[in-house]
Amino acid sequence: MDGTGFQVIGRSPRRLDALRKATGRALYAADLHPARLLHGKVLRSPLPHARIVRIDARAALALPGVVAVATGAEAPGLYGSRMKDTPLMAQDRVRYIGEAVAAVAAEDEETAEEALALIEVEYEELPAVFDPEEALQPGAPLLHPRLGGPLSGGPDSYACDYRDCHPVPGTNILSHVKVRRGDVEAAFAAADYVVEETYTSHAQQHVPIEPHAAVAEWSADGKLTVWTSTQSPYLLRGDLALAFGLPPSRVRVIATDIGGGFGSKIHPHAEGPAALLARKTGRPVRVVLRRAEEFAATTIRHPTRITIKSGVMRDGRLVARQVRVVFDTGAYSYAGESVCWQAAIGAAGPYAVPNLHVDSLAVYTNKVPAGAMRGMGWPQTAWAHESHTDTLAYTIGMDPLEFRRRNAYRDGDASSTGQILRDVSLHTCLERAAAAIDWHAPLPPYRGKGLALVSKVTNPLVWSSAFVKVNEDGRVNVLTSAVDLGTGNSTILAQIAAETLGVRVEDVDVSQADTDVTPFDIGAISDRLTYHMGSAVLAAAADARQQLAQVAAELLEASPADIAFAAGRAQVRGAPARQVPLAQVAFAAQRRFGGVLGRGSHSDTDLVPLDPETGQSPKPTPYHKWGAQAVEVEVDPQTGQLRVLRVVSVHDCGRAIHPDNVRGQIEGAVVQHLGFALQEELLFDSGRVVNPSLLDYRVPSMLDAPRVEPILVEQPRADAPYGAFGVGEVGSIGVAAALGNALYRACGVRVRDLPLTPERILAALDGRARLQGGEGG
C-alpha cells in the first residue's frame, strides 16, 4: 500500500495482454479457420451514384470453386447509430464509389477474387454531389429521399432516434444542431473588434494496423454467430439484427483480439458480407478487407469547413462568438449525427462567452462515409477556435496565453449548452503547459511556440454493466463486454477489481466480449470505458466483496462491517491476527450458496437532450474533460518544411489508475494527430479515393515522432471510479491548432487549411513576401 492508501491504484503493472501479444498468441479474426471455411470477397461500385438495374452472377457461379453470390437485396433492413439509413450492401442504388454491391464465397481467396470480375452489374447513373456546400443548395441531387423528421416523417421514412439528431427532410442535411444564447448581433455591434475567419480540415483514415475482418456462421436453427474485431459487440449485434430482421438474441457477437480501431470498427463492414454469404452457403465464411478497401469502403474522419466570428473588447473579454460548422458526412450516417452533436457543444471553444450562435450541420455527399474517429469532431473544431483565438489576441495586442487566462472556463461557469461546470482544471493545465514549454523564453528566427486549450465531452452512451466472479481458489473473473482496443482498459478494469477485493492484479482475469455470455456495454467509444465501465466493475466488485464479507464474518466470528480485504486475505479490522485466506472464504461461499457473483452497472439516467432550437440543457453529457497542449516548431523558409521539436500535452485524468498507460495514450494520440495536422490526407477525384494505399497515404512512423512530454493533472472526481476517467482521445484535440499558432509566431503567416504541408506554408510565405514587396514599392 502506497501513500495514497491504495494497493494497486496508481501503479503500472504489466498489462494483461502483454505476454499474449508479445508472443504472437493473440487471436485475431483473420486467424480463425473453422472447419469447412469459405472465403468471401466483395464487389464494389465504380460509380458515385446510380440505380442498380440488374445483377447477373451466372458466370461467376459457373466458375469452379465458387459456392455462392449474395447481394444486398437479401438483407433488406437498415441500421445506423441514430438514423437508420445504412444497408449491409447496396439494395436498389449505390451512393459512393466503393459501396458493396455483391459478395462471392469460394473455396479459396484467389477463386473468390477471380469471380468478382465475372459478375455483371447494370447501372443507371444518377447525378452526384461531392461538396457539402453544393449539397446544401436547392436542387442538389438528393441522396436520401426517405429522410424524415420527428414531425414530418412518413410511413416510408427512415427509422431514427431523434434525440440529438435533427434531420431536415427534403434536403441532404443528416442533422442540424443549434446552440443559441444571448444576443449575438447586439454584442457584435457593441464589441471593439469583430474578426471573422474560415478554417478547413480534410479527410483522414483511421489506418488500424489490422484491417476489418470477420467470420460468420449460422446454426441449423437460424442463429447468427460472428467472430470479429469490433469495438462495440452489442451495437454490432443490434445493427446485424436490424439488417436481417432478427431479434437481437438471435445474433451472437464474439470479439476477437483487435489490432486498433480508433472509431472505425463500430458498425458492420466485413461482417455484413460474411453473414450474407454464410446464410446462403450454410458454411462459415471469412471476409478480410484489403488495405485499399479500408481507405475507400469503410469510414473516415469528417472533412469540415468552419466559419468563426468573434466580438472582443480591448481589455480581452470575449463577448460574442458565431460559428458555422459543415461536416461532409459522406453517403451514410454511421456516427455523423453524433459527431455533429459533439461539435455543436464544442465549436465555440472552452471559453465563457455570454452570446453564442452555433450551427453544426452534417451533410450527405456521394463520397465514402465519414464516421467516428478519435476525438469525434473536437479536433476539427479546436483547429478553428484555437487558431482563431490566437488571431483575436494578436488583433488587440495581447499575449495568447494571457488572452486564454482571461476567458477560459472556471468552476461555476455555464457551458455553451447551459450546463454548470464543476471540477474545471483548464487553468491548471494551461499554466503547466506554458511553464513546461517555457512560453516567454526568446527564440531565434523561424522558431515558434504555440498553445491550445483542450476540452471534450463524452457521448451520452452511458450504459455499462459487469459481473465479478470470485472462484473457489480466490482468483477473480471480471466479465464485461468492454473491448480492449490496445488502450489497456482490461488492465485498468482488473486494477479496479483488485483494489476493491484486496487481491493482486495478477489474480484477476478479464473476459473478452461475447454477447451470449458477457453483460451489456455500449462500446469502446468516446473515451467512456474508464469512467462508465470502471464504475460498473467497481459496483460489481463491491457487491462481490459484500457477499464475501458475510461469509468471512461467520468464519471469523465478527460483524460483516468489520471485515476488510487486503493481500488476498480477509481480516477483522483492528485485529490483524484474526484473518483467513480469501480462497478459503470463496470456497465456503461456493459450498454455501453456489459461489460469489457480483453484479454492477452504471447509467447516467439524469441526462437531458439538447433543446432542438436553443441547444440548451442542464446536463446533456456526463462530464467534461480538460487539458492544454503546447508545441515548439522550426520552419525552413526555403522549403516550407515545418519541423516539430517538442510537444507538451497536459491533461486532467482525475486519478491515473495506471500512469504508464495514461502517458502512453497521450503520446499515441499526439503522434496520430501530428499525422492529421501535417501529412495525412485522403484525396478524392469526383468521389473516388485516389490514394488508397500506404505508399501514397503516409502515416507517421517512429522517425516522425518528436519529443512528447505528457503531464498528468490529477484532480479525482467524486463520482468516478477511484476518481478516474479516460484520456484516450483528448491528446488528439489541440495539436493542429497549437502547430498553426506556433507557425504564425515563427514566421508570421497564418495557414487556415489543413494539413500544414510544406507547399501550403511556402505559398503563405511567398504571399507574405509579395505583399511586403508591394507595400515597399
Summarize the structure.
By secondary structure, the protein is of the alpha+beta class. It is about 25% helix and about 25% strand. The radius of gyration is 27 Å and the shape is globular.
List key phrases describing it.
five-stranded mixed beta sheet; alpha+beta; seven-stranded mixed beta sheet; 777 residues
Rg, Å, rounded: 27 Å
Strand order of the largest sheet: 3-5-1-13-10-11-12
Global geometry: globular
Number of helices: 18
**Count of individual beta strands:** 30
In angstroms, what separates the terminal alpha carbons? Answer: 74 Å
The secondary structure category is alpha+beta
Q: Give start-end ranges of low-pLDDT stretches.
A: none
The helix content, as a percent range, equals 25-40%
Beta-strand residue fraction: 15-25%
* Largest sheet geometry: 7 strands, mixed
Mean pLDDT: 96
Structure, explained:
27% of the residues lie in helices and 24% in strands. It is of the alpha+beta class and 777 residues long. Strands 3-5-1-13-10-11-12 form a seven-stranded mixed sheet. It has a five-stranded mixed sheet with strand order 7-17-16-15-8, with helices on both faces. Helix 16 crosses helix 17. The radius of gyration is 27 Å and the shape is globular.
Topology:
Elements: H1 18-22, E1 38-44, E2 50-56, H2 58-62, E3 66-71, E4 93-94, E5 100-106, H3 109-116, E6 120-125, H4 132-135, E7 173-181, H5 184-190, E8 193-201, E9 204-205, E10 213-218, E11 224-228, H6 233-244, E12 251-255, H7 271-281, E13 285-288, H8 291-297, E14 300-301, E15 304-312, E16 318-330, H9 336-346, E17 355-364, H10 378-395, H11 400-407, H12 426-437, E18 447-457, E19 464-470, E20 476-479, H13 489-501, E21 508-510, H14 529-556, E22 563-566, E23 569-572, E24 575-581, H15 582-593, E25 596-602, E26 624-635, E27 642-652, H16 659-678, E28 684-685, E29 688-689, E30 707-713, H17 735-747, H18 758-776
Parallel strand pairs: 1-13, 11-12, 16-17, 20-21, 27-30
Antiparallel strand pairs: 1-5, 2-4, 2-6, 3-5, 7-17, 8-15, 9-14, 10-11, 10-13, 15-16, 18-26, 19-20, 19-25, 22-23, 23-24, 26-27, 28-29
